[in-house]
Amino acid sequence: GPGCYDMKAGLVVAVFALRRLAQEGRLPPVSVFFTPLEEVDCEPYRGVMESEMRGCRAVLDFEPAWPGGAVKTERKGSGSVVVRARGRAAHAGADFEKGANAILELARQTLEAAALTDLAAGVSGNPGVVEGGVRPNVVPDFASLEIDFRVRTLADGRRVEQALRALRPQDPRVTLEID
Asked: Buried-most residue among 46, 74, 79, 99 (CB within 10 A)?
């Protein structure tokens, strides 16, 4: 099922390693933190997790190897931003000029978000989910865009988040909300 390669396999490895250390009498005091929310939405338990990690000499993440078998020695940080555009609905045939197309505005913002990608620096911005419109003959007054970004450094994360929060509509009749 979902996560069987990167999540469930890592859990099996962690349990096996702890069991083996215990059998050999070499198991030091250890905290283990398993979560079903492996990629997103750690907020419900973030405080507990961070508190536990602060008291540890080492923190291990049981991700599988990179393609080709190389051991992972780091993980990227990630963030998620939702951009909502609010325009003005209109009939696409009779009153097209009265409309302010929220989807078209988000198409522009999608290109801005994707332009933040710098693979050499380990930064990626992925506009992954776009929703909007109700019928093809209606200029859409609402649309939303979910952007996932990955970074190697906290400074890059702050820079990307700041750039995404600074997005401004190109159509003055459309407003943007950024969460």
From this structure: 99
